From TrEMBL:
Single GO biological process annotation from the record: DNA-templated transcription
Keyword Transcription regulation: yes
Species assigned in the record: Advenella kashmirensis W13003
Keywords for this protein: DNA-binding, Transcription, Transcription regulation
InterPro entries: LysR-type_TF_proteobact-type (IPR058163), LysR_HTH_N (IPR000847), LysR_subst-bd (IPR005119), WH-like_DNA-bd_sf (IPR036388), WH_DNA-bd_sf (IPR036390)
Family stated for the protein in its record: Belongs to the LysR transcriptional regulatory family.
Domain HTH lysR-type intervals: 6-63
Gene3D superfamilies noted in UniProt: Periplasmic binding protein-like II, Winged helix-like DNA-binding domain superfamily/Winged helix DNA-binding domain
Matching NCBIfam families: PRK11139.1
Protein name per UniProt: LysR family transcriptional regulator
GO MF entries: DNA-binding transcription factor activity; sequence-specific DNA binding
Amino acid sequence: MLRRLPPLNALRVFDAAAGCDSLTQAANNLCISQGAVSRHIHLLEDWLGLQLFVRQRHGISLTADGIVYQRIVADALAQIELGSRQLQRRTDTKRLRIKLPPTFAIKWLVPRLAHFHARHPELDVQITTSHQHADFNREDIDLSIQARPHASEALNEEELFGEILVPVCAPSLLQGQPPLRQPADLANHVLLCSLNRPDDWPAWLQAAGQAQIDGNLGLKFENAALAYQAAANGLGVTIGLAAFIEQDLNAGVLVAPFDLRVRTDGGYFMAHASDRPVPEGVQLFQAWIREEAASMQQG
């Protein structure tokens, strides 16, 4: 079927101009003349039969129709760009792009990554961090790990391990004042936590019979890795996840002042898009990370 499309070069110029406040700036961004930008926009307006820009003395601005059309064009061009990158990526079987939360990357994956690289040195692993769920239709990634399932039919998800809450602090905090011998003593200490995990302290305090202590008071950090570092520096007591503080406990950087460990309903989940073939590199990484998660739980 023959599609009735507007001039494609004009769409590209319109998209560039819509993000600027002047034709001159759009021309500089596109490396063409201002006159060429103006001609493309007029051509598109004539084709559509409506005005997209208001020409002002000191620049241009989108009309109401232009604002609506800009969203449509930007989304369409973004899809074309992403689809093109995905097709190019199919020929690059040695590259593996992973998106995961910062603390998972810093405290769990990176310390183990040398094992994977030793087993598969031919793979080029690229890691980005975010607390946001991955969007495989818009982002250039192969695999994601998140602290909660997305519950989407577009994804194949599996749980790697659950969450166990453990208060931890620097060893020096146990030797000083005020004392830190029983959970009630936490009322006299600074509580540290991640902004992304506001329920951890309340959950542990509830289980410890200390619900009267406000777990939301204290110092909060962008991610748990920063809270762990603050605790190691003696700033206070943080609520940690057992999987992420294991090495610090073994090294004596952090200590757990109480025996109580509380399991949450949460966990960490690995996901990939369900509507496309799984590259060999992704399969190799999945097999390896399953082994690492299983050995941690057995230990």
